[in-house]
Amino acid sequence: MKIAITSTGQDLNSTVDARFGRCQYFIIYDTQTKDFQAIANEALSSGSGAGVQAAQTIKNNGVQVVLTGNVGPNAMTTLSAAKIGVAVGVMGTVKEAIEKYSTGEYKLADQANVSAHFGFKEE
Q1: In whole angstroms, what is the distance from residue 3 CA to residue 112 CA?
Q2: Angle, alpha carbons 34-4-58 (nearest 5°)
Q3: What would the pLDDT profile of 95-111 be if each residue is shown by its tens digit?
Q4: 116 occurs within a structural domain
Q5: How far apart are CA 17 and CA 91, in angstroms?
Q6: Which residues contact 54 (CB under 8 A, 6 or more apart)?
Q7: 58 lies in which domain range?
Q8: Is residue 76 part of a domain?
Q9: Is the Cα torsion angle 101, 104, 110, 111 positive or negative in sign?
Q10: Total of domains in the chain
């Protein structure tokens, strides 16, 4: 199974990014092979629709579960429609998040936990 973890960096020791749609990277981790790859989140600098764009990236990479700090309603709707589970409230390093998910510490959410445009910073 492939899981995606929102991340501030490109390796397993990076911190989990609290934002889904505007995270810096997605770490795509294969629970069977233990291999991973970092993918830059191209939706990070989008003016709008970052969550939906990020969800499409996740879907295109064959991910079944997302681990993140927060997810907004549009991203959650898109992920749910693609039958991708989402665990929110995830903190610590990417490695810790994977370990906690595999031991059942993180449960899948059934709705967004933040409002639309959470994490968007105008400059």
Answers
A1: 18
A2: 125
A3: 999 999 999 999 999 88
A4: no
A5: 8
A6: 20, 21, 22, 23, 26, 41, 43, 75
A7: 2-102
A8: yes
A9: negative
A10: 1
Name the residue type at position 2: K
Are 56 and 34 within 8 A, CB to CB? no
> What is the CATH classification number for the domain harbouring 63?
3.30.420.130
Cβ-Cβ contacts under 8 Å for 119 (sequence gap 6 or more): 18, 19, 21, 22, 70
Torsion, Cα 84 4 7 22, to 10 degrees, reads -30
Residue 46, pLDDT score: 80
Express each pLDDT in 25-68 by its tens digit. 999 999 999 999 999 999 888 877 889 999 999 999 999 999 99
φ and ψ of 40, to 5 deg: -65, 140
List phi, psi (to 5°) of 95. -60, -45
Enter the pTM of the model. Answer: 0.90
Q: Is the pLDDT of residue 119 over 60?
A: no
